[in-house]
């Protein structure tokens, strides 16, 4: 249970301040300072409606893809992440109903370097890979529509893409390559084992994009 949490399961501003202080002291490291963010996970009982919330740290956002779409935007994937979905079979500690719960993940604080993992692999009875294209902004990814808070603690919300890890192949076999943007020239390069080629910016987005690396504009990485 969250300290300072109200009866409705929603934390008050004092609890939020404590959490933010905690995140900047006890778990501080160069890694968490660069990659660490925070979201609020809220479970809501389908039957009784009561809800509970807790804050969780993340080092990357693992976002789902829309089903049955040949292409989608990164914003759609992030929105699906926030909406969370349902948890079947969950038993409510308040009303003992096992009708399940809805889960929502509100993004509370974003890090200087935001890593987004596209959930291309899924199981619908058998493991499969979704090969749809994800249209991700190369410049000016604005995360503010997805943020639950607009307060002064929210330092980072606008990002440039500087790296992509691609996965080619299937569940059984595959190959990884990387695209990286040189900070001094702003040009993209493809890294494929021992081969390195310059790449047009238009080729950065593909159906193979698996991990996206964004740096906050004010971070200047
Ligand atoms: Zn309940």
TrEMBL record:
Residues 1-217 form the USP domain. It comes from the Eukaryota. PANTHER family: UBIQUITIN CARBOXYL-TERMINAL HYDROLASE. It catalyses: Thiol-dependent hydrolysis of ester, thioester, amide, peptide and isopeptide bonds formed by the C-terminal Gly of ubiquitin (a 76-residue protein attached to proteins as an intracellular targeting signal). One of its GO terms (biological process) is protein deubiquitination. Gene3D superfamilies: Cysteine proteinases. PROSITE patterns: USP_2 (PS00973), USP_3 (PS50235). One of its GO terms (molecular function) is cysteine-type deubiquitinase activity. Its EC number is 3.4.19.12. Keywords: Hydrolase. This is ubiquitinyl hydrolase 1.
């Amino acid at each position: 249970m969250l300290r300072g949490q109200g009866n409705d399961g929603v934390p008050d501003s004092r609890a939020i301040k404590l959490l933010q202080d905690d995140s900047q002291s006890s778990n501080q490291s160069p890694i968490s300072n660069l990659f660490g963010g925070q979201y609020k996970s809220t479970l809501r009982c389908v039957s009784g409606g009561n809800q509970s919330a807790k804050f969780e740290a993340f080092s990357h956002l693992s976002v789902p893809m829309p089903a049955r779409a040949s292409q989608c935007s990164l914003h759609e994937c992030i929105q699906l992440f926030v909406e969370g979905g349902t948890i079947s079979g969950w038993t409510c500690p308040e009303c003992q109903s096992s009708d399940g719960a809805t889960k929502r993940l509100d993004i509370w604080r974003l890090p200087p370097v935001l890593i987004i993992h596209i959930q291309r692999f899924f199981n619908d009875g058998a493991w499969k890979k979704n090969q749809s294209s994800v249209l991700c902004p190369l410049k000016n990814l604005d995360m503010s529509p997805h943020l639950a808070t607009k307060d002064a603690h929210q330092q980072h919300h606008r990002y440039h893409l500087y790296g992509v890890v691609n996965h080619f192949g299937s569940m059984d076999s595959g190959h990884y390559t990387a695209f990286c943007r040189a900070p001094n020239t702003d040009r993209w390069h493809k890294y494929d084992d021992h081969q390195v080629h310059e790449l047009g910016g238009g080729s950065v987005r593909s159906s193979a994009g698996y991990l996206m690396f964004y740096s906050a504009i004010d971070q200047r990485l």
